[in-house]
Specification:
Chain lengths: 203, 203, 203
């Protein structure tokens, strides 16, 4: 791992998703290894599905043991300090949204590298950002949160579209990335703060 | 997309699965993006699992944006006209069965192209036909319908076996395909009409 | 299939997982094809996920029809003789643990062949051993047993680590394999007999 801005944020995203997975698993009263597995799939689920769909195998986490160690350490620390961390719910939420933003960008970028059309790149970014949480909730036997509450995938899709829009208008890729992350995080904060949600359809 | 019979039916199958996914998601009161995602996975789930198992990546829907647009438009139209469409339950069921029949054939064909044994081709066809619904129901947190009601996978397997049987007896592939689709659709209609089901095993 | 020790135990493992899948599906009152599908995914799920993550496609069971036939025959026999087999719960448990041990080794070995680091090989072995059961329980809409009861993944991880430890100290691979299988089976028996479990974390 080279140390540049993207890596720093990716690491933060990985940490955040590992924390969110750990909390979700603890709430279901899983044993420690169950907790670790849930933390792991939450962190690497999105990137794994992305790499499988692209055929870029062995998948990313198998080629870089550092991310596995990072998730392991994060999850264990979360288990020990969970009463303390619970007070920083806002911090957690920010990291989670930051992770969502960056993982979306990582997915979009990878789609571009693989020569996919913009719409497909946005889909790939959304998958990268959201699938960890989907797998986590499916394994924990709840309807994935993404399908029920708060604009989540929508933020990824809007962020991905914004990215291509900014590039189209000639913005440098690095600045566009930061703008997209700020956009996704801000959107998520506004949505949660004002309890915004897309209207649902029912019979 | 060339316009030939197969494409027409495949498009109809895609539309039908998108409609079925939309209805299933609406019943669970998901927000619009949740609905779109469920419609999407229901339509492309089977083909995606098939391509992943074969290692034919990037998976099909990433290479043809038309199917994504088709699903998007279908799902949105279904949301707006759902009260109207509900009256056409029989039409929906027929399209769903037609889609099942065709997707089974598409899977079988792809297995043949990849040089798999007939039994494996039938398995691949069954996966292509059924997996969209399995993923849909798993994400929506219900026991997949396929495992509980109406002969479903059985129709795919029987149809796939019939296809090889017809080819073995020298029938032209195109005629065999149509025969298999008619067979699967008819079997499904009879099963649903007369509430047939395989006997279950219980303690 | 050459007949050597590994194949014999792998066949036994496949049989055991097929039996466990059949029983789980029967308990949920699925129809016979639902039962066969669950038996099938329980037996081949772990190896399939392993091959997908590695990009070793078409996945193993598509290339060897013998395993599919074995699962089919096992599941049908289990359905017919299930009242009889239920009395041999201990035998079943032993075969299940044996399968877990061997599939773990198969996964570890495959990781070594693909040049992965030891930690990744152990992860791959654990995935190979455990994922069949995870998919089975997810499809049947229960929290995967692996996350709730008895040291299961833990046994795979410990066994995988032991394997590398034994190789490091110069043991022949074949002897190390048998030692690891005996270790995993013994660990599982002790855990179940004395109702050992890792402590859980709860609020």
């Amino acid at each position: 791992m080279n140390i540049d801005t993207t890596d720093v944020i990716e690491v933060l995203g990985t940490i955040s998703f590992a924390i969110s997975g750990t909390f979700a698993a603890v709430q279901k009263r899983l044993d420690p290894f169950g907790v670790l597995i849930i933390a792991f799939v939450t962190s690497i689920g999105g990137g794994t599905v992305r790499d499988l769909l692209l055929g870029d195998t062995p998948v990313a986490w198998m080629r870089d043991v550092n991310y596995c160690l990072l998730i392991l350490v994060t999850s264990i620390l979360t288990l020990f300090f969970k009463h303390h961390i619970k007070k920083f719910k806002v911090t957690l939420f920010l990291f989670d949204s930051l992770g969502l933003g960056l993982f979306t960008l990582v997915g979009v970028q990878k789609g571009i590298v693989f020569g996919l059309e913009p719409g497909m790149c946005i889909a790939l970014g959304t998958i990268t950002g959201c699938f960890g949480g989907i797998i986590r909730d499916t394994l924990l036997n709840t309807i994935p949160l993404i399908f029920r509450k708060e604009i989540y995938a929508t933020a990824c899709i809007a962020g991905g579209a914004l990215y291509f829009g900014l590039l189209y208008f000639g913005l440098a890729a690095d600045i566009a990335k930061i703008a997209v992350i700020v956009f996704i995080v801000t959107l998520r904060i506004l949505v949660v703060k004002y309890k915004l949600a897309l209207p649902r359809f029912g019979y």
